[in-house]
Amino acid sequence: MGSAFDPLVTPSNLTQDELKKRAAYKAVEYVKSGMVVGLGTGSTAKHAVARIAELLRQGKLQNIIGIPTSTTTHEQAVSLGIPLSDLDSHPVVDLSIDGADEVDPSLNLVKGRGGSLLREKMVEGASKKFVVIVDDSKLVPHLGGSGLAVPVEVVPFCCDFTRGKLEELFREAGCKAKLRVKEETVAVTDNGNYVVDLYLERDMGDLEAASEKILRLPGVVEHGMFLGIATTLIVAGKSGLLVQNRSGVKG
Ligand SMILES: O=C[C@H](O)[C@H](O)[C@H](O)COP(=O)(O)O
């Protein structure tokens, strides 16, 4: 499949949004006619959704079924004419493409700073292949060590109690847990839940152990650490595109 980019434009003069678009377009090269495709959410994934729609319009892709990971992506895909379904009707997804907030060297991710972590984890966890697309600002040595939030989706019932329990869990890592607020009111996810953001002074150590501790708390629905789910990473940087498969995963 040919590239849609001007070969005279080098990555060094691209904006961050153009880098995201490059990563997204590269990921869409993995989409083949007849596939069930998980459609991610956010400023990077929206370029992949638009590209899939463009290829469908051009007849270069056919019989794609998209599984959106948020109401926002659902609306974008409907407006662009991508046929849609859900996990109830299509429990196995061939390929998902989505952005991430942080990516560590083992392709573990933090996601959900836009609030879509639960549906993303359901769809991407059901995918045979999950291609993560980022610009190089998202690469970190350890998840949760960047001073930015690790999101946790919680039920609204006594959310301050759950917030306090989450903060206690990671007290040794200097955790501050904050209920997410948007435009001066509590942020509500597509599932009618709230988000508690964990801000850590130090990384939380063993990620699997941290994940288990969070998920054991009653009141927690899901967290934004995606451990061992991504199969392929595409990074766009000023020096070009890098494609990396998770160790043990074939391209
Ligand atoms: O909830 C939001 C999603 O997890 C996004 O995929 C993530 O926040 C990355 O978004 P963006 O591509 O806009 O940086």
TL;DR of this structure?
26% of the residues lie in helices and 25% in strands. It has 6 helices and 15 strands.
Structural features, described:
There is one protein chain. This protein is an alpha/beta fold and 251 residues long. The chain has two domains: 11-140 and 228-238, Rossmann fold; 150-221, ACT domain (Alpha-Beta Plaits, 2-Layer Sandwich), CATH 3.30.70. Helix content is 26%, strand content 25%. It has six helices and 15 strands. The protein has helices at residues 16-28, 45-57, 71-80, 117-125, 159-169, 207-216, and strands at residues 36-39, 65-68, 93-98, 102-103, 109-110, 127-135, 150-154, 176-179, 181-182, 185-186, 194-199, 220-223, 225-226, 232-237, 240-245. The protein has a six-stranded mixed β-sheet with strand order 2-1-3-6-14-15, sandwiched between helices. Strands 8-11-7-12 form a four-stranded antiparallel β-sheet, with helices on one face. A three-stranded antiparallel β-sheet has the order 4-5-13, with no helix packed on it. Helix 1 crosses helix 2 (45-57) and helix 2 runs parallel beside helix 3 (71-80). The longest helix is centred in the N-terminal third of the chain and has 13 residues, at 16-28. The mean pLDDT is 94. The structure holds ribose-5-phosphate. Residues 40-45, 98-101, 111-117, 120 line the site of ribose-5-phosphate.
